[in-house]
Amino acid sequence: MIITVLLGILFQEAQSIRYQIQRHQTIMDPIHDIHQVEYRVQMQFGSQKQPMELIIDTGSSDLWIPSIDAKGFLNNVNRYDCKGSSTCINTHSSYSVFYDDGPISGTLVWDQVWMHNIKFNQSFLLIERASGNMASSGGILGLGFNSNAANPNPSILESLYQQKLISKKYFSLYLKDEGEFGSYILFGGIDMEFIQKDQKISYVPLISDTSYLMGIEGMSIDDELFSITTALVDSGTSCLTVPAVAMDDMLQVFAAKGVECSYRVENYAPSYCTVHCFVNATNEQGIIDSFPIIKIRVNSSFELLLNPQDYLYSCTILDGSQSKCNTKLERSQSDDILLLGDAFLHSYYTVFDQTDKQMGFAHSINNKGLKLHVKTRHLVNFAQMLILYIALLLVI
């Protein structure tokens, strides 16, 4: 029998959730949306169903979970105890992978794995050493091609297919806004309810056997085209990451429209992307009207559009004439690869098809004129507090 497996991405820790499990229906698991930077799905491992939170990462292919003996992880990160599972088999074979955040190393183990209460056998890599953001993030659910994995055994997607839990090696992804419920990753199926009624899924062939890489003609603003030859769809990337030369040219067009932008690295959310802009507008609609529509030209007959609401994260009104905006844009040092991260996936329902080696895109129901996070810097209140503080010093 074919079981379509759906993992619901929800941000709700305190409330209990009921699940229905029937053939040809869905299975929903809770996950944290961390400031639109990470999306984590919950799975259970071993005979005791040890719970783990895993980052959904289409840019990598390995399943990593932290060992109970791993050093450097924060106390709130769940860790897996192989000795605590009667079904765990530790091969003691060592593996290492270098991610953008740094290297991860560990050993290969086999055990039972649950997506809610759908059980299957799976090998995974047990983290013994990690660096960077892994110390707070827990594990990684790599959903890339098996041929790109360090672990030579079947990946999660391969296992679901080989063990006849899905009929085809593909999954689809729908992301909602931060703080809202109802984002989903659907293994072995597509749910048209997440697609706008006037839309259909358009498919683009992949040009790689190891990643979700597709050929494109470039990005454009108005009639000006910025040459980029390839795009990688990567849920493990938070920003829309644009090659350096193309980004420099794009921001010159922004400047001609009255939007002045600069690069700055921030180590905290929500300013996690590096492009920050100033615009002469002080209300939501005025800000939106100041920024251009960005078009990703796949070919002469197909473009993927990003409205200002899609690539702006938040804006702060500085005074009576200007606002500062944090964007979901990032400048890459790569020459020709555009990274379509979560900033893009919020706007498009996306199909990752390994069987037919293609990507599918359609405007999601989330793409309908999103509201910006617009706030005012309370300079007056700060001045009043400063005056009060000075007066108290004079009295003392």
UniProtKB/TrEMBL annotation:
Nucleotide-binding among keywords: no
GO terms for biological process, alphabetical: proteolysis
Active site: D57, D234
Top-level taxon: Eukaryota
Entry-linked PROSITE patterns: ASP_PROTEASE, PEPTIDASE_A1
Keywords, alphabetical: Aspartyl protease, Hydrolase, Protease, Signal
Protein's name in the database: Peptidase A1 domain-containing protein
